[in-house]
Amino acid sequence: MQVIPPKIKKILDKWNIRGLVILSLLFQTSLIFLAPMRKRTSKKLLAAFLWTAYLLADWTANYAVSQITKNQGKEPEPDDPPKNKKLLALWAPFLLLHLGGPDTITALALEDNALWQRHLFGLVSQALAGVYAVVQSLENALWPPITLLFITATIKYVERTRALYSASLDKFKDRMLQRADAGPNYAKLMEEYASRKKSNLPTEIFLTDEPDKHERPPTLVIPDRDLTDLEIVQYGYKFFNTFKGLVVDLIFSFRERDESRDFFNKLKPGEALRIIETELGFLYESMYTKTAILHTGIGTLFRLISFGSLLSSFFVFHRRPLKSKDFHGADVVITYILFIVGIALDLASMVIFLFSDWTFAVLRKLKDDPEEKNNSSIDFLLNWFLAFRKPRWKEHTCNGNQTHKVLSTGFLSRRWSGTIYGFNFIGFCLKAKVSRIHKKRNCNVLVWESVVSLFDLVIRRIKMLFGSIKNVNRSIRSVLRRWSKKNRMIRYTVYPIFLVFFAGIPEVFRVLWKYIDRIFSVKSYLDEIRFISREPLTKNQWEFIFNELKDKSSFAETPEVAKKVSWARGEWALRDSKLAEVDTLMRYIEKVDYDQSLLLWHIATELCFQKEDVGKMENLSKESYDDREFSKIISDYMMYLLIMRPKLMSEVAGIGTIRFRDTKAEAERFFKGRQIKDLRDMKRASETVLSVSTDIEPILVKGDRSKSVLFDASMLAKKLQNLKDSSNEDGKWKVLSKVWVELLCYAASHCKATEHVAQLSRGGELLNFVWLLMAHFGLGDQFQINKGDARAKLVVGE
Questions:
Q1: DSSP symbol at 208
Q2: Contact 298, 136 (CB under 8 A)
């Protein structure tokens, strides 16, 4: 008995190689155009498609080569054209070319770069397999185009292997290490000193330190005007080459620190944002694409050779007469498709190559005189093109009738997602939808929100249905249990059948769902869709973060102070506020772990946010309203990082998951007991939490087994409600906004550099920008060289 019918098997045998070749070409086409989008968005659908295409592209090409090799050794079928196998041998180098991969993606994840040895082995093995397939087809009149194609395919595969090799962390670090520095020749100097002393000559050694930054002329001068779009890219490329060592934990000298800090102190916040955008773009391209190796002399030369070989192969093939009786018509068409699409994809790659930021930075160097205007036609053309990629800011009226400029760059022009995600604890406990502060009004957002609302409604209805079934099941079981005690027939017939079909089967499905969720994390994906909010970056929010770090950088003159400032978790902001309640609030920072501090201040911020009514919001000054908005957005963002992106917070998360679960359990029990869990009213829930008396600390009543901080946060919120600043206005939002910036900076400086780079392939995060901005301002522990070499002079007296 045959599982596959003979007719279908015959079709599969006839079209398997053709289908695999076409599928391989489709994967390459989709990767080259869709891969650049992953640095602009964090959409999981795009990530899933790229993951599938990336893995299947290599598998398809490898399997197709093996099928061609196998097919060459078979006896021809009676209805096959006599020379058709010789045409199929031409497809082998095409598949090797596909294995070289598109220029826009070499590594799906940072770990793929470490597998460059595997790709090198694959290069050798697949090249041998392709050669074997061709050798089997000899004598082959198509050997000239086949040879030219092998040149192109080998160059492409070598490019991919070299890109992976260069981006592997150990090789990336090796290339950045400078020559070993033995320092001044101490032994020689001391020998001369001892010799002169032995000769009874009056000899002294005078030490002269290297000049400090006030005595050194500035090495990087910023022009007294707005930077042009080309200069933004040029400065971004310069600082990328300086600070890419952050990825592999290299240290920097005081000269590099001072140069960067002095430069960024004179920048406008918007210009700093754009420079960091380009820096992160260069970092992404060097780690995940072929861009870095193509923008070298050798890389450009070999790319021209490979493209020339591909064109030559096509022309040689096209000019060679093909008799229809010798080749199958469909195979000839597929071959032409492979050539034409391959040439088109190479041309598309060249366009991407020519119009990348890397090309502009390498083509036009920074001018020695920054005040010199860019009057050349080339500079004008480059500035005109780069203007399409600059961030776009759009006026937006918030919920409190305040107007802000929000980042609204077009999808194809943006360099990162530009989105700040949020996760709200109280909203999650109530299963309530958190309203956005800056709600975009376009068709895409409305459609997405409608889909999410419908999806949320379906899930709620399903849960209600299962809850009703569970209650009915419990009632029936109770009745049958009573009857079975009185009636033996029911005890041995009806009751066991009920337990098996109406109690046992649902339990099996429940356990099965539990294991599926544990393996595939289905519930976490559903929670992301339902409960994660999205806010665009606002211009004044970035300016606020920039100015806060700029102020702190003025204190970071030594590595010790820089480390102390960058590791502040809110205490710096509290002491700077000069409030009478500083000592009371400080205990919620200094005497608790970082993850506990995050949860405490997040819940307290939300309680204060929901406490204020619309009328009070309208009476707030613009500065107070902005501080309130910043606090809310960063608070939700930090909770999103802690719960939904634990890899980014792995260094500081502690027992954050346990603490979150315990606090969630207490909040749900509290809301259920007050009959407000199903109302989904965050304002009423917050008021109910604040209404509970907290005269006695929760730990004195509950002990410390449970790690819940719900009512500790309520105590903190009540203390914040009473804060007044010097102008007798509500001062809690000014304090909260500064505390949250420090908590954000602490997380950014403690996140592993490799995790920052990994996030660039998922749309980027505000955390990545803060991390790089802190490095530019000299905040962190990367700057451990403070004085440099001392200059020793041996002076002999008379």
A1: E
A2: no
Tell me the per-residue pLDDT of 105-119, one tens digit each, with 9 for 90 and over: 999 999 999 888 888
Q: 99 and 31 in contact (C-beta within 8 Å)?
A: no
| Number of helical (H) and strand (E) elements in the chain, helices listed first | 36, 8
* Global pTM value: 0.89
Least Cα distance to 746 among 560, 594, 542 occurs for: 594
Residue that terminates a domain, selected from 314, 334, 356: 356
Task: Give the whole-angstrom CA distance, residue 67 versus residue 130.
Answer: 11
Tokens in use for 519? 């393996």
Residue 425: is it exposed, middle or buried by C-beta count within 10 angstroms (0-12/13-18/19+)?
buried
Structure tokens at 713: 């946060």
| Other Cβ atoms within 10 Å of 208 Cβ, number | 9
Do 277 and 303 lie in a common domain?
Answer: no
If you average pLDDT over every residue of the chain, what do you get? 83
CB 153 within 8 A of CB 100: yes
Tell me: the pLDDT tens digits for 7-61?
766 666 677 888 899 999 999 999 999 999 999 988 888 998 999 999 999 899 8
For tokens 């909203």, what's the residue? 427
Rounded Cα–Cα distance for residues 104 and 37 (Å): 10
**Would you place residue 547 in the very low, low, confident or very high pLDDT band (cuts 50, 70, 90)?**
very high
In angstroms, the CA 605 to CA 583 distance is: 19
Q: Based on the fold, state whether residues 579 and 606 are members of the same structural domain.
A: yes
Distance CA 6, CA 2 (A): 8
Instruction: Say if CB 631 and CB 736 are below 8 A apart.
Output: yes
Is-contact 624 730, C-beta < 8 A? yes
Report yes or no: 74 and 14 within 8 Å, Cβ to Cβ. no
Q: Give the domain range for residue 376.
A: 229-256+263-288+359-386
Instruction: Evaluate whether 761 touches 616 at the Cβ level (below 8 Å).
Output: no
Categorise residue 672: left if φ over 0, alpha if ψ from -120 to 50, beta otherwise.
alpha
For residues 272 and 229, the answer to whether their CB atoms sit within 8 Å is no
pLDDT tens for each residue of 262-301 = 999 999 999 999 999 999 999 999 999 999 999 999 999 9
Q: Please indicate, yes or no, if residue 435 is contained in any of the structural domains.
A: no
Q: Crossing angle of helices 6-34/91-99, nearest 10°?
A: 40
Please state the domain count of the chain: 4
- Pairing of the two strands 203-208 and 791-796: antiparallel
The answer for residues whose C-beta is within 8 angstroms of residue 234's C-beta and 6 or more apart is 360, 361, 364, 365, 366
CA angle, corner 706, sides to 703 and 712, nearest 5? 75
Q: Same domain, yes or no, for 326 and 336? A: yes
Rounded to the nearest 10°, the torsion over CA 619, 621, 623, 626 is: 20
Same domain, 477 and 363: no
Residue 448 has a pLDDT of: 62
Token pair belonging to 262:
């002095």
The residue assigned the tokens 């930077």 is: 227
Three-class secondary structure of residue 533 per DSSP = strand
Asked, as a colleague might, if the bond just before 755 is cis with ω within 30 of 0, I would say no
Three state DSSP letters for 630-683: HHHHHHHHHHHHHHHCHHHHCCCCCCHHHHHHHHHHHHHHHHHHCCCCCCCCHH
Residue of 116, 102, 225 lying closest to 167 (CA atoms)? 116
SS3 for 382-403, per residue?
Answer: HHHHHHHHCCCEEEEECCCCCE
Please check whether residues 311 and 447 belong to one and the same domain.
no
* 712-to-504, 601, 603, 690, 796 alpha-carbon distances in Å: 42, 10, 9, 11, 71
Which amino acid, one-letter code, is at 567? Answer: W
pLDDT at 128 over 60: yes
